[in-house]
Amino acid sequence: MLCNKFTGQNMTDTTFLPPLIAAIQAEILNNEEEISALDRAIGDGDHVTNLIRGLEALSKLNDELVQLDWSAAFMKIGMTLMSTMGGASGSLLGSMFVSMGKEAKEQDIDLAGITAIYAAGVESIKARGKADIGEKTMLDTLIPVMQSLQSDAEQNSDKATVLANIKAAATQGMQSTKDMLATKGRASFLGERARGHIDAGARTSQLILCVIADQLSEN
Amino acid sequence: MLCNKFTGQNMTDTTFLPPLIAAIQAEILNNEEEISALDRAIGDGDHVTNLIRGLEALSKLNDELVQLDWSAAFMKIGMTLMSTMGGASGSLLGSMFVSMGKEAKEQDIDLAGITAIYAAGVESIKARGKADIGEKTMLDTLIPVMQSLQSDAEQNSDKATVLANIKAAATQGMQSTKDMLATKGRASFLGERARGHIDAGARTSQLILCVIADQLSEN
Amino acid sequence: MKKLINSVESVLEESLNGFARAHSNIIQFNHQPNYVSRKNKSENKVALISGGGAGHEPLHTGLVGKGMLDAACPGQVFTSPTPDQMLMAAQAVENGAGVLFIVKNYAGDVMNFEIAAEMLDCPHETVLVNDDVSLPKDHSTGRRGVAGTLIVEKIVGAAAEAGADLATCKQLGDKVVNSTASMGVALTSCTVPALGQPTFDISDNEVEMGVGIHGERGREVMSLTTADELVQILAKAIDEDLKPAKEQCALLHINGFGATPLMELYLVYDSAAQFFEERGIKIVRSLVGNYTTSLDMAGCSITLTLMDDEMLQYWDAPVHTAALRWGI
Amino acid sequence: MKKLINSVESVLEESLNGFARAHSNIIQFNHQPNYVSRKNKSENKVALISGGGAGHEPLHTGLVGKGMLDAACPGQVFTSPTPDQMLMAAQAVENGAGVLFIVKNYAGDVMNFEIAAEMLDCPHETVLVNDDVSLPKDHSTGRRGVAGTLIVEKIVGAAAEAGADLATCKQLGDKVVNSTASMGVALTSCTVPALGQPTFDISDNEVEMGVGIHGERGREVMSLTTADELVQILAKAIDEDLKPAKEQCALLHINGFGATPLMELYLVYDSAAQFFEERGIKIVRSLVGNYTTSLDMAGCSITLTLMDDEMLQYWDAPVHTAALRWGI
Ligand SMILES: Nc1ncnc2c1ncn2[C@@H]1O[C@H](COP(=O)(O)OP(=O)(O)O)[C@@H](O)[C@H]1O
Ligand SMILES: Nc1ncnc2c1ncn2[C@@H]1O[C@H](COP(=O)(O)OP(=O)(O)O)[C@@H](O)[C@H]1O
Ligand SMILES: [Mg+2]
Ligand SMILES: [Mg+2]
Ligand SMILES: [Mg+2]
Ligand SMILES: [Mg+2]
């Protein structure tokens, strides 16, 4: 159920998704050069291309997605990302959404439910990637956001606070990767040379989460 | 016999050759960059390297050469160039000296004899290369020099005139290649694009002939 | 970016089409999901499947055929393939004796193959190739899989062809991996079509030492020096890792990254063979050429595999693929 | 200049040493004069000898062995070999049935081989390869010999192995030459070690159309365009030269110049095969890879050979060389 204090009047169902996907696509394309440079610096340079490919595939799901409930929509998104992106990020984001789809069956779409769903997604990335916070990956963006959601859910914060906290946690988490040594992903091969560069996956996760927060705040 | 009006007092035998070879080597090395650029522009760039390799091999013949008469020395030079230079120029210069060696058996080393020997060498290049004047090759240097020698021999010109005419003919011949279309050698593959460039083999022939003339004038 | 392509979007598909067309006697190409599979497979043979990002050609598509792989799943350039490719390929080529996945150790490859394996409902095993000794053995993600992968595929491929069962193939694969060490040096980066520019900058007097095969930087930047000195560094790391006994037989593989002429690769072979022979190793087999490439990167890697009689026999067994062929 | 070498002076010798070491089972390398010759030659077989400047590897050294060449004489990089090399090689491998020289049509190669032939005192013939259709048939020096040379060597090599006599081999060689047309396009120049810099400059949006194999400029500069459009130009010139009949069988060879990834060569194959098939030609054999290279030049050539049954049978016959191997 989507009609509640947090998710807002207009976010009644998965019709929310197509415009959101379009907004994310626009934001990633806007930052394509920068993201590409990040993955070139300490990875192999393909992260943004992989993500754009995945988002393009999602954008073609429009009609299909809006006919699905949240659980099925997340599943569909996960399977689509998994079979179009490739790379480390494809398997991870794919797993995340499939797990979110599974969890969404058990949850209402309120702050607590969304928090639980998102946490299930993040946990599946940790499990699939055998990684945790502090390893210079997308998890350095994703986990702080999970923690902020969890604490806001506990405190039953109002929507503006929740969204502001998501953006702050994502941005701070993303930036924290800059000075880290990498112990997962391709950047780990570079040892000390990886320091001083932001992780590409952390940056795209942050961009995506900020777009989601902005879209939610408009609802 | 070397003691005559043209060849001078000191050029009595093949001891003349080692310092001459050294002088030629120095001149080619001095102009290496330029020659390399010429063959790069309308050929494959190796002409100067081939020539330097050949000259190095000749410079190692010192002791051997001075023990030989002119005919045998030319033969030895021809065989050495032929088996060390490679490329079009190696087979041509090799053939030239082998033919000069054969002709030297029949000639005195006076102006008429030298002219006949040189002409035999040039004829062998024409035969081996199936080429003639005006095809943008080393023959555009070599043939005018042959003609100047022949006319000076007829007129029994004095040494200074002979040598000045050699240098003038060689230089003019070399320069004449600049505006030619090439019909032999690699430059022929370029069609109109070969125009405007001096032929590398014409340039090295001219440099060599000028060094020979200068060395002879000092004797 | 200067490439013989029509568009960044179509390069992979068109290249695979050309590959399929050129080798239609031995392989077929399935579109969507993309995989190359072997024609005329033997009955009741363990199915060998590998895959990875494109851009390493002939690896892996060029190694599909009798005596080697049953299927290869090419991802986008330098991007691991997706699980549906491996799953569909497995379902297409499996014929009763199970599936062996041969996976280069990269997060993306490992995870995508893992997902496929989880979905596959027939007996299966995975051999993880991690032959790159430019990283320490206890590296946080494990070592990368590089040019040694071909050797694993050849030897296990011959065993499978000879009727070895899944457990035996898996064991043999692990043995080859443990007997193999590689390390590479790059003189230039390479240009991924979708990026349109080299992945990294490098000056004219520098090399990247200890590189992987995705155009990424290596372990460290070093001054460009002689081939012999570069070979020393690579070969020493390999030697210290494998610690071969005197008189040990070995296969020496010099792998070009794509833009280095064969002339230089043979020069490197000479230098490396000398290095190992001075240490008492007997080089009994050689492989020199561009096999595990990084598009148009200049540079090469050295791979040494310590060989026993069984491995030698499987190495010599007939093979008929686009890139490796003998005895047939 | 970035190369895996020790010194400009030693690169050729060291590379040949490595080649000899890596393939000691099939060839041996004679120093001074340099030639590579086949081990285990058949009795009373026409001896096939080729050669040319180094820098085209695997041509010709990589094509010495059973079913192909008996000897190859490598000159310095892009410099024709010297007559003593061909003479000594001929004396070493000739065994009663005469010598066939296979020579690419370049002034230097032709003249140096000619001098060797004049000195050789056994029956001998020369097949002159001039497959490059970027030049008109009546070009003043004749057309150049390029990637089609390998096809001549393979087909005549198989005939010689099967016992064909010198006259038959010569005739067959001429027939293959007349049935073969090639043309190439370069995206970059290449760097000859002794020069230390690229032979020509070329801007990022230009190609050299109609190049030979010595890093020299081509017939004309053109704008870099799609692979399909470049293939059109090359394939059309070939088609207009050979004027094949409908249903004519042919071998299509895409040859990389050294630095172009296999991914692109297969894409070119796809495009070229489509071109010829649309004209009714049946592409029955393919060869895609770096065979007649120009060091580290990027680009490729297309070669088409019209095949009859005899040529097909010889193409398919067993061959065992460093670079080409099947059936053995
Ligand atoms: N084990 C892992 N756990 C979590 N995230 C990871 C892991 N490995 C890689 N990543 C994330 O994936 C991103 C790279 O994705 P991408 O470039 O698409 O794949 P690849 O590394 O295979 O080229 C990295 O920037 C990092 O954020
Ligand atoms: N057929 C020929 N007749 C006379 N001279 C020729 C002929 N072909 C080439 N040359 C000369 O040889 C020179 C090139 O020599 P070189 O670069 O050593 O050999 P290659 O052309 O085989 O690389 C040309 O500049 C030209 O002067
Ligand atoms: Mg990446
Ligand atoms: Mg030249
Ligand atoms: Mg990748
Ligand atoms: Mg040359």
Total helix count of chain A?
A: 10
| Shape, per Cα inertia axes of chain C | globular
Hetero groups in this structure are: adenosine-5'-diphosphate, magnesium ion
> Can you tell me the number of structural domains of chain A?
1
**Most extensive interface, chain pair and sizes:** C-D, 61 and 61 residues
Please tell me how large the radius of gyration of chain A is.
16 Å
CATH architecture type of chain A: Alpha Horseshoe
Give a topology summary:
The complex is a heterotetramer, with two copies of chain A (219 residues) and two copies of chain C (328 residues).
Chain A: H1 17-30, H2 32-42, H3 47-59, H4 62-66, H5 70-84, H6 87-104, H7 111-129, H8 139-155, H9 159-176, H10 200-218
Helix pairs in contact in A: 1-3, 1-10, 2-10, 3-5, 5-6, 6-7, 7-8, 8-9, 8-10, 9-10
Chain C: H1 11-22, E1 27-30, E2 35-38, E3 47-54, E4 71-77, H2 83-93, E5 99-104, H3 107-119, E6 124-129, H4 148-161, H5 166-178, E7 180-186, E8 206-209, E9 220-223, H6 227-242, E10 249-256, H7 262-278, E11 282-289, E12 299-306, H8 309-316, E13 319-320, E14 325-326
Parallel strand pairs in C: 3-4, 3-5, 5-6, 10-11
Antiparallel strand pairs in C: 1-2, 2-4, 7-8, 7-12, 8-9, 10-12, 13-14
Helix pairs in contact in C: 2-3, 4-5, 4-8, 6-7
Bound molecules: adenosine-5'-diphosphate (ADP) (2 copies) and magnesium ion (4 copies).
Pfam family, one (chains C, D): Dak1
GO molecular function, one term (chains C, D): glycerone kinase activity
Domain DhaK (chains C, D): 7-326
